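PROTEIN DESIGN WORKSHEET
SECTION A - STRUCTURE
LENGTH: 93
TOKENS:
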């Protein structure tokens, strides 16, 4: 009877070890999608007029922005095309 208890404990331990290793590998494969690069192609709301520079609100933050052509007024939506430092380059939707 003691041998079966040892077999069961070893089997469960091996299963748990394989499961934990699988979860660790899966966690390392997932890329984090945060940061400035994640903002490209997202929309933002104009806070201060873009003529051509002003501010926009995107994902809970206010950013300096520069529109590629024309102007945009507060409340207008723009799309983020590029980022250089802390300035978003946008165009009107």
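SECTION B - SEQUENCE
RESIDUE ASSIGNMENT:
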């Amino acid at each position: 009877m003691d041998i079966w208890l040892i077999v069961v404990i070893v089997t469960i331990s091996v299963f748990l070890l394989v499961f934990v290793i699988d979860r660790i590998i899966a966690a390392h494969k997932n890329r984090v999608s945060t940061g400035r690069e994640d903002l490209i192609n997202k929309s933002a709301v104009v806070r201060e007029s873009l003529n051509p520079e002003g501010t926009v609100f995107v994902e809970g933050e206010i950013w300096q922005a520069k529109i590629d052509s024309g102007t945009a007024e507060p409340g207008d939506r723009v799309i983020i095309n590029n980022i250089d430092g802390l300035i978003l380059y946008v165009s009107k939707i």
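SECTION C - NOTES
DSSP finds one helix and five strands in the chain.
Residues 1-30 form one domain.
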